[in-house]
Amino acid sequence: DAGVIQSPRHEVTEMGQEVTLRCKPISGHDYLFWYRQTMMRGLELLIYFNNNVPIDDSGMPEDRFSAKMPNASFSTLKIQPSEPRDSAVYFCASGFPYEQYFGPGTRLTVT
Amino acid sequence: AQSVTQLDSQVPVFEEAPVELRCNYSSSVSVYLFWYVQYPNQGLQLLLKYLSGSTLVKGINGFEAEFNKSQTSFHLRKPSVHISDTAEYFCAVLTGGGNKLTFGTGTQLKVEL
User: Fold this and answer.
1) Please, which of A42, A107, B99, B107 could form a disulfide with A97 given CB 3.0 to 4.6 Å?
2) Of residues B36, B42, B51, nearest to A98 (C-beta)
3) A71: closest CA of chain B, how far (Å)
4) How far, in Å, CA of B110 to CA of A55, rounded?
């Protein structure tokens, strides 16, 4: 198995632009989690899905952030419009709450 | 609400020496406990987990951790570290019935020759 796949690995964009991060979970995993990692705030859970349904989005910082999971093999995290404070590494993880498999992350830089 | 405290932000150690990374948690209900490792520019990888049963848990790469309910601790240990163990280690807690992991701030383990 290739593991959790995230794209792009690096994204540099200008403030105000729309950013879309993509995730392909491991086949057969029921849960999908989106995390953000920064030096200041550490690892934060943004949102998670169970069987493609969003269960808890209380970690999404504001309305500029949205996430979808149209099917069991694909999820997106969108930021519109992006701001410099959104610069971070965004991780997708799949599996179960007690056993999560992380992707390599997307490093987002907003200038 | 649950929380996790990793008091040591950095732990330097010489190769082949033993190491202990400390983790304390607070929760008013039963917990599941985890250690994850993050190598540079990579995602997190599960090292070991405590769900129930024996309080001494063995994980990958020779690591082990002991759940101590009275001290609300879950310290990670390895008897002899290798250069390749240099990474950041995160302790995490999941309360019984919950689905959201709460991570500590991480401990950077630096193994030196």
Assistant:
1) B99
2) B51
3) 21
4) 38
The most confident of B23-32, B55-64, B89-98, by mean pLDDT = B55-64
Asked if the Cβ–Cβ distance from A104 to B106 is below 8 Å, we say no
**Residue B60 carries which DSSP code?**
G
Query: Strand pairing partners for A10?
Result: A107
Strand order in the sheet with A5-7: A5-7, A19-24, A74-79, A65-71
- Chain A residue closest to B107 (CA)? A42
Q: Of B14-18, B91-95, B106-110, which gets the smallest average pLDDT?
A: B91-95
pLDDT digits (tens, 9 = 90+) for A67-99: 999 999 999 999 999 999 999 999 999 999 999
Cβ-based contacts under 8 A for chains A and B: 48
Dist CA B55 CA A23 (whole Å): 35
Q: Looking at the partner chain, which of B36, B44, B94 has a beta carbon nearest the beta carbon of A97?
A: B94
Q: What are phi and psi of A77, to 5 degrees?
A: -125, 120
Residue in B with minimal Cα distance to A107 = B41
Which residue of A lies nearest to B98 if distances are taken between CA atoms?
A97
CB-based contacts of A27, cutoff 8 Å, min separation 6: A1, A72, A73
